Amino acid sequence: MTVLLSDPRIAAITARETGEPLVDAAEVPELRADADPPGSLVRQGVLERLLVAQAALPAGLRLLIHEGYRSPGVQHRYFSDYREQLRARYPGWTGERLHTEASKFVSPPDVAPHCTGGAVDLTLATATGARLDMGTAINASPEASANACYTAATSISPEARSNRDMLAAALAGAGLINYPTEWWHWSYGERYWAYTTGRPATVYAAVSPREHEERPL
Q1: Which residue of 37, 111, 135, 163 has the smallest Cβ count within 10 Å?
Q2: 3 state SS of 43
Q3: Are 113 and 190 in contact (CB under 8 A)?
Q4: What is the pLDDT of residues 85-134, one digit of tens each?
Q5: In the 3-class helix/strand/coil scheme, how is 161-186 assigned residue by residue?
Q6: Phi and psi for 176 in degrees, rounded to 5?
Q7: CB-side exposure of 82: number of CA atoms within 13 Å?
Q8: What is the DSSP secondary structure assignment for residue 27, as one 8-state letter?
Q9: DSSP-based three-state secondary structure for 119
């Protein structure tokens, strides 16, 4: 059974912080990025693992970074907006159900991996920037994609399945973990990673906008 970010066991993980800096993945020639700071920022340890994953890919393919760090304020807005979309679509759902269902697509702000700089949304592309078929676009919601956004979805083409498996093998081999409802979302060092890997505490805590401005890039 999939453990969602809304599960109380995720929030119960102790948040610790190493002080590791945020760095700009867009400035690393081995990777590609379609975002500018702060969206292209990730923790130094995440970047190092992305480079390990990149080296494991076949020649001619690149990791394409869509979004890394996200401020707590932006995360709160994303979650609230999506929860309200679900409320309008499913007026009979309770507040608890809305919270749980919303967490399949947007993390509750208090445990959001992106706010730590430890999470990254990414896909595969050719060296010239053409994206590979992954079955859905990045950020396709469960409703819009009929759950094809789930990493293990069986409704996608054999080509898309092969591409997802290749992405997963490279990233998991580098020590990142996936959020099972989003094939594009991988992370290291935050609460979901700690729960999944059996750690008692995080490596990274949430970073405020002021803090990320003060950290060396």
Answers
A1: 37
A2: strand
A3: yes
A4: 999 999 999 999 999 999 999 999 999 999 999 999 999 999 999 999 99
A5: HHHHHHHHHHHHHCCCEECCCCCCEE
A6: -90, 155
A7: 23
A8: G
A9: strand
**Phi, psi of 47, deg, nearest 5:** -60, -45
User: CB 137: neighbour CB atoms within 10 A?
Assistant: 13
Query: Residue 53 is which amino acid?
Result: A
Residue 90 to residue 87: CA distance in whole angstroms: 5
Residue 175: CB atoms within 10 Å: 17
Ranges of beta strands (E only) in 17-71 are 22-24, 32-33, 41-43, 61-67
| CB neighbours of residue 207 within 10 Å | 25
Enumerate residue ranges in the chain where pLDDT < 50: 214-217
Average of per-residue pLDDT values in the chain:
95
C-alpha distances in angstroms, 12 versus 9, 19, 206?
A: 5, 21, 15
Report the distance separating Cα 40 and Cα 59, nearest Å: 23
CA contacts within 13 A on the Cβ side of 119: 28
Cα distance between residue 90 and residue 40, in whole Å: 34
Question: DSSP 3-state assignment of 80?
Answer: helix
